[in-house]
Amino acid sequence: MRIAVIGAGMAGLSCATALTAAGLDIRVFDKGRGPAGRMATRRLETPLGEASFDMGAQYFTVRSPPFAEEVSRWVTAGHVAPWPAAGPEAWVGTPSMTAPLKVMAERLDITWNAFVAGFSRDEAGWSVHLKDGEVHAFDAVVVALPAEQATPFLALTDPSFFKRNVLSQTSPCWTALYAFATPLSVTTPIFRKQGIVSWAARNSAKPGRAPLETWVVQADHDWSRHHLEDTPEVVAEVLLDRLRALTGDQGRPALAQSAHRWRFALSTPLGLDCLWNEEIGLGVCGDWLLAPRVESAWISGSALAGRICADLDRTGRRDSGQRHSAIALPVPG
User: Fold this and answer.
1) Do 92 and 207 touch, CB atoms closer than 8 A?
2) What is the rounded distance in angstroms from the CA atom of residue 126 to the CA atom of residue 5?
């Protein structure tokens, strides 16, 4: 069985890891240069050296036993640590949120900088079409993308999946990053829901971070929606003013600053762990199916891998490969 996994965020890597451990031939495609998704890390150059920021998920929690077992392995290896300032259940990757993703990615066959333009399917199986013209053959495909990015693929492959997909709406979020020469004048490392700011945190206060003073500010979803088309430069200045007001550091200049627009930040979950169409060999996983949490993405990917393996064992197709009825699907774009 050759299976393509589209997307190297937590859901895609979780699914690919479990399928690989089950002895299947897995290849992951991602348009980025490395694993991230909503656990992305950004680096900025400053006069005092490089500054690093967690610009996506700020921390994650652990509630389910299977995920707890996985996190315990990350703890033992030094890839995650608790962050008590954010709460008794808060954990962060060390030295950045991408740390556990990088460990997972190292053990997988991943093609980076690979923009998947679409799929097509015939009696022999699936073909994954890359934007550069390359085509790769597989027996099944897993879509591990945010809801809106998954839409064009599902619309052309499975109407029932597509109907569920369009029910999930994702809110945007502007996120700003700041580095300062000296610490800001506050002892608290976190501000929650203050006006248009939904979250502001001293990123450098997290375990394993460099000492350079760094802050991450996330705007409220409503404000982000109304200012979605503003330039990053304008947003960075607005949120810097809000951060100064919160900390009392009026006029404090930033050594470096940047703003990133997350068009697909907080999903409206459907209460499903995953989707799997065994007739055509198409699977979907992601936090937008279950809940907008890092743990939910991991659970979704793991659940889909379990569904696929159970189906293959039941039908005896694990080693022989699938054959599908003839159908050709247009490639989007």
Assistant:
1) yes
2) 12
Whether omega before 189 lies within 30 degrees of 0, making that bond cis, reads no
160: left (phi over 0), alpha (psi -120 to 50) or beta: alpha
Using an 8 Å Cβ cutoff, are 14 and 107 in contact? no
Residue ranges of the chain with per-residue pLDDT less than 70: 317-333
The predicted structure's pLDDT at residue 331: 32
Give the count of domains, the chain: 2
- 206 lies in the same domain as 259: yes
Indicate if 164 and 299 belong to the same structural domain. Answer: yes
* Cα distance between residue 125 and residue 123, in whole Å: 6
Domain CATH for 238: 3.90.660.10
Sign for the CA dihedral angle at 128, 134, 135, 138 comes to negative
Which helix (H) or strand (E) segment is 29 a member of? strand 25-29
d(CA 292, CA 11): 12
The answer to whether the CB of 295 falls within 8 A of the CB of 64 is: yes
> Are 34 and 142 part of one and the same domain?
yes
CATH number of the structural domain spanning residue 26 = 3.50.50.60
Q: What is the pLDDT of residue 169?
A: 81
Please report the pLDDT score of residue 177 as a whole number. 98
278 and 180 both lie in a single domain: no
What is the DSSP pairing of strand 2-6 with strand 140-143?
parallel
User: CA angle 122-28-101, nearest 5°?
Assistant: 155
Question: Which amino acid is it at 111?
Answer: T
- Which of the 8 DSSP states describes residue 292? S
Side chain identity at residue 1, one-letter code? M
Give the DSSP letter of residue 189: -
The closest of 304, 305, 308 to 273, measured between CA atoms, is 304
Task: Check residue 319 and give its pLDDT.
Answer: 53
> Would residue 224 count as lying in a domain?
yes
Q: Which residues are within 8 A (CB) of 91 and not within 5 positions of it... i.e. 6 or more apart?
A: 59, 60, 61, 62, 71, 80, 81, 82, 83
Q: How far from chain centre, in Å, is Cα 155?
A: 22
> Do 226 and 139 touch, CB atoms closer than 8 A?
no
Q: Which domain holds residue 178?
A: 170-267
